[in-house]
Here is the input.
Amino acid sequence: MLPLFRSLLVLVPLLAALDSVTTALGLPRPPAAAVLFMQSLGLWALLGLAALVPALATERFFAGPRSARKPEDWAPGPVALAWWMTFPVLAHARLDAHTGLGGDLAAVLAPRPLGELLALVVASLVLARWAAGRLSRLRPRPLGPLLAVAALLIGALLPLGAELPAGRGVERDPSGSGRAAAESPNILVLVWDTARAMNLTPYGAARNTTPRLAELAAHSMVFEEARSVSCFTLTSHLSMLTGVYPSHHGASMGRMFYDALRTPPITQALARGGYRTGGFVGTAVLRAQTGMDHGFEVFDDRVDPAVCATSAWSLVHDVQSLLARYVPAMRFNGRPHVIQDFDRPGEEVLERALSWIAAPDPRPWFALVNLYDVHWPYLPEDQARRQFVRPYDGMVDGYVFRSDSYPQRPPELALGARLKADDNRHLEDLYDAELWQLDRAVGEFLDALRLADSNTAVLVVSDHGEAFGEGGRYEHMDITEPQVRVPFVVYLPRTAGAPRPPSGRRRGRVSGVDVAATALGLAGLEVPQHMQGLDLLAAEVPDDRPLLVEDRDKLNLESMHLAYYKGPWKLVQSGLGQEPSFELFNLELDQGGLEDLAAQHPQVVAELVREMTAMRATWEPDGEGGLGGGAGSRALRGLGYVGD
Here is the structure.
């Protein structure tokens, strides 16, 4: 056993260095090398200890009786240990590429992945046999320490990542002059992830959940009829940055990336126009690999430890997820991944953003700040809980349907069918408490910016809402009104000698697709013709403006939805396949959108279907395929987007 431990001291730093290098090369913005290497070192040490027992059994099987060995022989143990440490990681990496969204393993059983796995088994065994033969002819004592020292040097001397990681596709004016005038305002886009309008103080909430937002709204333009463009975080954020609908920029839950060359984000235009650009996000769904970082000088998306990007951790993560399916004690309320949460607190995101904003730089700045605090699970702190959560002794907690204490649901029973009015009220209480908590953090952040004395415009928006039993829906995997009606607040700075900036409430229907054009208008830059959004400061929004919501973030075409708003009507198409169904709601009479009037108004349905189809045809909407697995699938499962 002692020789295997000595081999472990060589293999752990060697494999940690190799994993760190390959991980850094595969990321658009690698983390600090020393941090990545040290964390990888610890992880590979655990994998090595787990591999000792099978390696020892393999050594004894191939090497024969211990009495037959000479002390100076290099037994096959080190090679067996290396094989047991590396083969599971390599095999998982190959199969992971074929895993479906949500952890669907059906595709893994197809001929191609099984053939790849068989080829890997054969190749690794042949290599191991060759290595064992070669090593038996070498003197191992000086070789082992030499390899260990080399590995440590590789890990220690990797280029260090920046304190604030850079984005991609930033095009600066080489002269440094840009086009942004000295009076051009700073632009802050605060995205309150998962915030539905009806629970916010400025939108008539029954309780004072967001007093600081109400203070800001009193001096801002408040758009009362704002809708998200989708019900998924990535697609909505990309529409905010590109000014186009999701089927135009192409990203979806099944295709967790987009092509910035096809649909350039406004960050590129702002950078060319003399702005410095920073993105600060609270969720792994918006990580740089999706393309979200294009045009940002700084893009801070490090929500989990650096080691979580490595191949070794991917294996550990999926083993944990597999155990959680069959071992109740390993479920941990739907978050079994120990050190990986896929999100981070808003206070941390705001602190990073404030540090960047305060840097000495004469240029105006544009900052996108995503705050993930009110997303599932609903776990407010004690102070907020005492203020907003009423006494309750029912079956649900903040983890909802993924809670270890929630009764198992038969497949034929609809999600949430067991919940009663008091259960829904409790979930909404927890949600309100988190809103209050987030509002307090944002208020402190805005105080630090000293808005009254700074030339800063603020847009407060959300990527989607949330449902708590309305129409039998929960969370945000549909496009009912609680799930897509969101806040849209625009605060404009007041400059000396200028008239008071516009404020007050606006009735025109707006959307997250308007964020890009409005930001460009604030910067004094031209709005590209391909954008479907409006500059909300350039003119009043027409009362009959048509809007689109695209829920393409599903596993199949039959589960996808579209919504088309025109005048008082909301048309909902369920299914994007050959036989879709349609519902019609009159939002003037039914603000919640719960009473289907399609049978009473077939001509209205036909007219709106024609208009919606013609609208989407103007930009040739992409296909809806490409449902893949990998890192994006792991993040979606960890955040509750797929699976119960």
